[in-house]
Design brief:
The chain has about 210 residues and is α+β, with helices and mostly antiparallel strands. About 55% of the residues lie in helices and about 10% in strands.
Length: about 210
C-alpha cells in the first residue's frame, strides 16, 4: 500500500484546490501541509529546496517531489487507481490541454484577481474596489467564457462526455468568479457553462 501523499499550500489557493480535486476524484487520502507564500519572509527554506520559485502547491509522495499544478494532477491521475481523468482520444486530450492552457494563461487573473478580489475580497476586508480594473477584468472574463463555451460544445463536460482534468482546473476559478454579482451574471449568459457549473458543484467527491 502506497503512503498518502502530502500536498503543500493553503486551502483557499485556486491551484491547491485544483490538486485536491484531482486527489478527491481518484479517492486518494492526502495530508495538506500549510505553506503560505505570502507570509512575512516568504515560505520556509525547507520548502524552497523543493520548490525554488516559492509558489504553491507542491506534492511529496514517498520521497518524490513535484511542483506545478498541471504536473501534479497528471501524476495523480497516472499514479493512483480510480477513474481516468484524461481522455484517451488524441483530439479529446488535446482539447482538455487547450482548455487548461486557456484557464492558466487567460482566465485565472481576470476571473480571480480582477473580479473576485476586487468586488468581493477587497470590500470584505475594508478596502476599496478598483472599478476600472474590475471593468477591464470583466471584458477579459467575457472573452474567456465565450472561448471555453465554444470549445465545450454540447458537453456535458469541458472536454467531452466525461469529466477530465480540464473541469477540475477551471472549477475553483469559476467558484470564486461567480461569487461576484457581475461574475454570476456573466456565467448566466452562457447557459452551457452554467449547466456545467451546476454539475460540478453537485459532485459529492469534488466539492469546490
Amino acid at each position: 500500500m502506497m503512503a498518502a501523499p502530502r500536498l503543500y499550500g493553503t486551502s483557499d489557493s485556486v491551484y491547491v484546490r485544483i490538486a485536491r480535486l484531482a486527489l478527491a476524484e481518484k479517492g486518494v487520502a492526502h495530508e495538506l501541509v500549510p505553506v503560505d507564500p505570502f507570509a512575512p519572509g516568504g515560505p520556509p527554506e525547507s520548502y524552497l529546496r523543493h520548490h525554488p520559485f516559492g509558489r504553491i502547491p507542491a506534492l511529496e509522495h514517498e520521497g518524490f517531489w513535484l511542483y506545478e499544478t498541471g504536473a501534479i494532477t497528471r501524476y495523480v491521475d497516472d499514479a493512483f487507481a480510480g477513474p481516468s481523468l484524461q481522455p484517451t482520444g488524441a483530439r479529446e486530450r488535446a482539447r482538455m490541454n487547450q482548455i487548461i492552457g486557456i484557464a492558466d494563461a487567460y482566465a485565472y487573473r481576470p476571473l480571480v484577481w480582477g473580479v473576485y478580489v476586487e468586488r468581493v475580497e477587497k470590500p470584505a476586508s475594508g478596502r476599496v474596489c478598483d472599478e476600472p480594473r474590475l471593468a477591464a477584468a470583466l471584458v477579459e472574463a467575457g472573452t474567456c467564457l465565450s472561448a471555453i463555451a465554444a470549445l465545450m460544445g454540447e458537453g456535458p463536460f469541458l472536454a467531452g462526455a466525461r469529466l477530465s482534468l480540464a473541469d477540475l482546473h477551471l472549477a475553483p476559478m469559476i467558484d470564486y468568479f461567480r461569487r461576484a454579482p457581475e461574475g454570476a451574471a456573466l456565467m448566466a449568459a452562457h447557459p452551457g457553462l452554467a449547466r456545467w457549473w451546476e454539475r460540478m458543484a453537485g459532485r459529492a467527491q469534488t466539492p469546490v
